[in-house]
Specification:
There is one protein chain. This protein is mostly helical. 80% of the residues lie in helices and 0% in strands. It is built from seven helices and no strands. Helix 2 (17-39) runs antiparallel to helix 7, helix 4 packs across helix 5 (97-113) and helix 6 packs across helix 7 (141-167). The longest helix has 27 residues, at 141-167. The protein is globular, with a radius of gyration of 19 Å. 37% of the residues are buried.
Amino acid sequence: MDKVYTHFKKAVARISLKRIIEVCIVGYFSFWLGSQYNLLFLSTYAETGGLWAAISGLFIIHELKSDIIGTGSRRLLGTVIGAAVGASVFSFLDSSLLTMTLALAITIIICQLLNLPNIIKIACITVAVMLFVQEIHNVNPWMNAFLRASETLIGGAIAVLIAYLMRHEPDER
């Protein structure tokens, strides 16, 4: 019992209220703004856009200050590549698991040819999300791609802004 108490006490001491606030603000505003943005285009699945913006923002806000711009840039580039491949493939072939598998293979090949192995994961996740949206909402593949990239930009911008505002050290004069 003593070990459990000691572990719990150390865990509580590591909790950062500032970090909790930062993450909650990014999650809330990324989801809200992503949903509102989607309402401009396709009201039937605004929440999907909010979710993708929130995932992007939450993914980026967890990075250290020194690499938050780099993480955001890689996330956006991976999303754009995955969205472009997904839209291209889903434009010519029916959306199915087999089609998604083909799009995943093409995405990996393109990322490797461009020497961008660190964005393969997000590019492939984007292809899978596009299939989900295609199956559920039957949206134009290029509109789907445009919205995925836009939502990533929304979530990323909010994460960078909140990180800057909450982590910025004022100049001492």
